[in-house]
């Protein structure tokens, strides 16, 4: 039997009393923190003006979460502890100002999951039908921030997102990674053995191809506009008694009250998608940042070499290089470059200055904290 230091037996009622006492302390402290956040909002409005005050501060949030992880001694692991603080901060931010977040919809997509992971559950959700609509909603000021997918570890970059930055003045304010877990789902009244069709987004069908070939070789796969839409169709079909399944994530299965037949059916166990947070403000340095650039190279020999050489000479770590057609001249290209550091850091500032002398256009898409969670 478990005992405390004085060797008196520790019983369930004693432990529950202790938990009740701790809960009431934690609750009082969280509210004390929330009062501080309300005061932060008042200070910001007094200093920056009520209309132009910036409430969401990604660099500060990243610093808070990193500190939580650094000082954590367990038994809860660092990520679990950071998730708790993530939601506390999100609730505090919602108290300062409720955030309207536009994302690639419909409800139940992995982009919504990314928005909830990054901003917590206190946001006002604004699902959009397309990536450029997310950009427009934030540019028009109808949403405070937007969330768009930018690359998947199995399927590569999302060209729509990269291309949307060209004509936009929005800045990247943050990044968030989501492990993509797919489930095979049916309506509760449907027997999985009767399933005739499986609906999902074409990318999700591709990410589960080997599993489907092994387990459902004779069932027809139907590509639809998103996996959330696939889940919605499976729910509708279920109401008509039609045996249709969907492949989608957890949020969609909850949203459309579907039953999980099989979970984690993706072929690559580390299948991950990276999303960007887009907004109207530049983000100050957090201490561990990344910068994204859009660079139009001059159409001359060695142009790319001369761009890359700058990074090497100043010891700046380039993490990604994507090439897209320039859309201005045939066989002309633009480069999307990510590197470690903030555009205000001395070495990064020097690289950007040199690139400006060597390229026909350099646009800083944003410096932002490296994803903490
Ligand atoms: O420090 C701030 O600027 C705050 O507004 C407080 C706080 C927090 O709860 O810690 C809340 C929202 C911001 O995004 C960052 C941090």
TrEMBL record:
PROSITE patterns: ACT, CHORISMATE_MUT_2, PREPHENATE_DEHYDR_1, PREPHENATE_DEHYDR_2, PREPHENATE_DEHYDR_3. The record marks 273 as: Essential for prephenate dehydratase activity. GO terms for biological process: chorismate metabolic process; L-phenylalanine biosynthetic process. InterPro entries: ACT-like_dom_sf, ACT_dom, Chor_mutase/pphenate_deHydtase, Chorismate_II_sf, CM_dom_sf, CM_II_prokaryot, G/b/e-P-prot_chorismate_mutase, Preph_deHydtase. Its EC number is 4.2.1.51, 5.4.99.5. Pathway: Metabolic intermediate biosynthesis; prephenate biosynthesis; prephenate from chorismate: step 1/1; Amino-acid biosynthesis; L-phenylalanine biosynthesis; phenylpyruvate from prephenate: step 1/1. One of its GO terms (molecular function) is prephenate dehydratase activity. SUPFAM superfamilies: ACT-like (SSF55021), Chorismate mutase II (SSF48600), Periplasmic binding protein-like II (SSF53850). It catalyses: chorismate = prephenate; prephenate + H(+) = 3-phenylpyruvate + CO2 + H2O. Catalyzes the Claisen rearrangement of chorismate to prephenate and the decarboxylation/dehydration of prephenate to phenylpyruvate. This is Bifunctional chorismate mutase/prephenate dehydratase.
């Amino acid at each position: 039997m478990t005992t405390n230091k004085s060797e008196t037996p520790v019983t369930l009622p004693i432990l529950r009393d202790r938990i009740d006492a701790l809960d009431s302390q934690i609750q009082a402290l969280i509210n004390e923190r929330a009062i501080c956040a309300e005061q932060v909002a008042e200070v910001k409005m007094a200093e920056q003006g009520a209309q132009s005050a910036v409430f969401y501060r990604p660099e500060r949030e990243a610093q808070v979460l990193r500190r939580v992880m650094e000082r954590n001694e367990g038994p809860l692991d660092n990520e679990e502890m950071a998730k708790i603080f993530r939601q506390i901060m999100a609730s505090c931010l919602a108290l300062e100002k409720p955030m309207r977040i536009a994302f690639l919809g419909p409800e139940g997509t992995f982009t919504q999951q990314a928005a909830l992971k990054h901003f917590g559950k206190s946001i006002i959700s604004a699902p959009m039908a397309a990536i450029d609509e997310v950009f427009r909603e934030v540019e028009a000021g109808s949403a405070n921030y937007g969330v768009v997918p930018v690359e998947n570890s199995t399927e590569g970059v999302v060209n729509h997102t990269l291309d949307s930055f060209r004509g936009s003045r929005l800045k990247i304010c943050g990044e968030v990674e989501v492990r993509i877990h797919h489930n095979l789902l049916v309506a509760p009244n449907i027997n999985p053995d009767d399933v005739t069709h499986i609906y999902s987004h074409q990318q999700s069908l591709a990410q589960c191809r080997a599993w489907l070939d092994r387990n459902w070789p004779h069932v027809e796969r139907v590509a639809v506009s998103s996996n959330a839409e696939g889940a919605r169709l499976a729910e509708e079909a279920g109401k008509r008694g039609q045996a249709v399944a969907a492949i989608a994530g957890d949020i969609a299965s909850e949203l459309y009250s579907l039953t999980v037949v099989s979970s984690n059916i993706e072929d690559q166990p580390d299948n991950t998608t990276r999303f960007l947070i887009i907004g109207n403000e530049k983000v100050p340095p957090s201490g561990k940042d990344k910068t994204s650039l859009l660079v139009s190279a001059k159409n001359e020999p060695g142009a790319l070499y001369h761009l890359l050489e700058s990074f090497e000479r100043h010891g700046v770590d380039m993490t990604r290089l994507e090439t897209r057609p320039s859309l201005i001249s045939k066989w002309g290209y633009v480069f999307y470059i990510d590197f470690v550091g903030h555009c205000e850091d001395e070495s990064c500032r020097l690289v950007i200055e040199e690139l400006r002398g060597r390229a026909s256009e350099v646009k800083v898409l944003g410096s932002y904290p490296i994803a903490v969670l």
